[in-house]
Write a structure and sequence with these properties.
The chain is mainly α. It has six helices and two strands; from the N terminus they run H-H-H-H-E-E-H-H. Helix 1 crosses helix 2, helix 2 packs across helix 3 and helix 4 packs antiparallel against helix 5. It comes from Bradyrhizobium canariense.
């Protein structure tokens, strides 16, 4: 019975992570992210910056509440795959690259694609296994089943 709750922490961490990245881009100024995309040669960088920010924030919020997860997972997965192939792949798998420890603290290198793969795995688990308890998707499914049952009885 406790396994029934497994999707909840996945939803919370994936949703929060996406929202945090989207809000960080927004708070730093979308023009900064647009400039980064332009430097990478992404076509229509202004539009792509806003699509990415919206995907991260809106998709993240939908995942947190477990709403339409199979639908919002598609653009979220695309954002992750683009990040893997345009940014992280060249740095290898590991997301933590300790370069040195100095008196001022630890210094790390560029992260690899490990974290992106973890996000993809969590999203896949939510799509395959469902959004779990306390989710809008679960509520919609129960409501749909209730209407379907009434149609069969009536």
């Amino acid at each position: 019975m406790i396994a029934h709750w497994a999707p909840l922490p996945l939803r919370l961490i994936v949703g929060y992570g996406f929202c945090a990245h989207g809000f960080a881009k927004l708070l730093r100024g979308p023009d900064n992210f647009t400039g980064l995309l332009h430097a990478m040669g992404v076509p229509m960088p202004y539009l792509m910056a806003w699509i990415t920010i919206a995907t991260e924030i809106v998709g993240g919020m939908f995942v947190i509440v477990g709403a339409l997860v199979p639908i919002v997972s598609v653009p979220m997965a695309i954002v992750l795959l683009v990040a893997i192939f345009t940014v992280h792949l060249q740095y290898g798998f590991s997301s933590i690259k300790l370069l040195e420890i100095t008196p001022s603290g630890a210094h790390f290198g560029q992260p690899g694609y490990e974290t992106d793969l973890l996000y993809l795995a969590c999203i896949a688990a939510l799509v395959i296994g469902g959004s779990g308890p306390l989710s809008v998707d679960g509520w919609l499914l129960r409501r749909s089943n209730a209407f379907t049952s009434k149609d069969r009885v009536g």
